[in-house]
Amino acid sequence: MRLKALLLIVIASLPLAAADFDFGRTMRVDYFHTSTPKGDEIVALQGVLNDGPWPGSRTRLIDTSNLGKYYFEVVDRETNQVIYSRGFASVYGEFETTPEAKERAATFHESLRFPWPSKPVQVRLSKRDAQNAFQQVWSTVVDPGSRFVNPSAGRPAGKVWSYIDNGPPSQKVDLLVIGEGYTEAEMPKLRRDVERLAGKLFATEPFKSRRSDFNVRVLELPASKSGVHRPRTRDDRRTVTGVEYNIFDSERYVLTLDNKALRDAASSAPYDFIEILVNEKQYGGGGIFNDQATSSVDSAFSEYVFVHEFGHHFAGLGDEYYTSQVAYTTGGTDHPEPWEPNITANGARPKWMELVTPGTPLPTPWNKEAFEKQQREYQAERAKLRAENRPESEMDALFRREQVIETRMLSEEKYADKVGAFEGAAYEATGLYRPEADCIMFTRNEVGFCDVCTRAIHRVIDMHTK
User: Fold this and answer.
1) pTM score above 0.90
2) Pairwise CA distance, residues 134 & 230, whole Å
3) How far is it, in rounded angstroms, from Cα 371 to Cα 270?
4) Is 304 found in the same domain as 189?
């Protein structure tokens, strides 16, 4: 009786949400997310299963970051209290912004992951409306004891090894690097690529100073043939996660559309974030907040792509560039305040006002017209190289020439290295603003993350480690 009383005291002293979970397991709720040309959004449950040990924080269970196009909550059915929540973005969320979404229906597989609940819960999925307020789009009740919930743990999809090991997963940010397009004989190359690309990430602030807050594990998925699927050049491949180029018909955009295959493979190790290394020379990558990031490994700018795309995936950072061709519909005149922490629609009073350098005018003037003229010439040459399917070395040479020109132009700006509000961001030439003249989210220049992006990264690290 005395032992039982002590146990009850310990349980009663736990935070309410923490007492509602079995942290030895991760619950994964899989669902289908369908879009129709009429604009319908349909969500349907696919299954619920055990996704391995819970790798995340056991204390920071409620997301207060206000990041993500989507947001999900886990609600205790008995008390109607939210016991877990996270914001995220998705491939579906990007697809619906493309012209293709108005022409055909499409279905995407998605997953929500959270600690294994000890009793029935309601899972609520919400999406931002035109005013950026979250509105519920789907809800389902999950009983962990139901026969429709599979508690069995899966088998590892491949060999897992540690590149950085700084402590228990629950107290660290856990990054899983997945190698795709590497044959068994190329596994030593994967190790070198991880050391080079992850090494670049942790040589870049603020990741450099926060390195001790990370664990990095690597999952080997040997391929029968080197490389991944590249539809435009008809280099056809099939890999475990289904990662490929040409997403939304953009020649450089690399993702996997097979979320189930990705999640099943990733469950081989504890993870909070996923980066897929693509064993290819062609420039390419992609990054979606709290979903996935990718980078090719052998272009001249692979290190930049790795860090840039991880910025999207990890901290919800938006693209600050606006002159490159993208698959999304742009050119709108109405710009509600973006959820991304480094983009604002209010150039006179940006959301990062407390970081603005004293004496910097808002909006902040810069040589925008000269920059755009130079970019038009560069983009035309780039399009010509791609249309002629020229060797990747010629594209890399173009990128290097462009880097020299951009670095000079932007470093000579009157307000270079000052935090302000510079017009031109998130694929829009007007109406949206970025924090500084240059940043790794704007160009390939060796300037690192701006102060606003750096703060956003620190906040996410803190959410997983404190």
Assistant:
1) yes
2) 37
3) 44
4) yes
Parallel, antiparallel, or unpaired for β 273-278 and 173-180? Answer: parallel
- 165 and 302 fall within a common domain: yes
Tell me, yes or no, whether 74 lies in a domain. yes
- Distances in Å between the Cα of 345 and the Cα atoms of 65, 99, 211 are 19, 23, 33
Domain limit, last residue, from 316, 334, 369: 316
Residue whose tokens read 């594209």: 395
Cα 343 to the chain's mean position, in Å?
Answer: 16
CA distance 266 to 281: 24
Do the beta carbons of residue 283 and residue 305 sit within 8 Å? yes
Q: Are residues 166 and 146 in the same domain?
A: no
CA pair distance 56, 146, nearest whole angstrom:
24
Choose the final residue of a domain: 115, 150, 185: 150
Pairing of strands 82-88, 255-256: unpaired
- Rounded CA-CA distance 166/213 in Å is 7
Q: Are residues 165 and 146 in the same domain?
A: no
Neighbours of 60 (CB within 10 A): 14
Range of the domain at 61: 13-150
Edge-first strand listing for the sheet containing 160-164 = 160-164, 214-220, 173-180, 273-278, 292-296, 285-288
Total domains in the fold of the chain: 3
The DSSP letter of residue 171 is: G
pLDDT string in tens for the chain (466-residue length)? 444 444 343 344 344 456 689 999 999 999 999 999 999 999 999 999 999 999 999 999 999 999 999 999 999 999 999 999 999 999 999 999 999 999 999 999 999 999 999 999 999 999 999 989 999 999 999 999 999 999 998 899 999 999 999 999 999 999 999 999 999 999 999 999 999 999 999 999 999 999 999 999 999 999 999 999 999 888 999 999 999 999 999 889 999 999 999 999 999 999 999 999 999 999 999 999 999 999 999 999 999 999 999 999 999 999 999 987 655 555 556 788 999 999 999 999 999 999 999 999 999 999 999 999 999 999 898 889 888 888 888 888 999 999 999 999 999 999 999 999 999 999 999 999 999 999 999 999 999 999 999 999 999 999 999 8
**380 within some domain:** yes
On whether residue 335 sits in a domain, the answer given is no
Angle at 89 between CA 167 and CA 143, to 5 degrees: 75
CATH number at residue 92: 2.60.40.3250
Indicate the pairing of strand 70-76 with strand 82-88. Answer: antiparallel
Strands 285-288 and 292-296: antiparallel
- Position 176 in a domain: yes
Cα distances (angstroms) measured from residue 365 to each of 164, 348, 361, 408, 447? 43, 12, 8, 17, 20
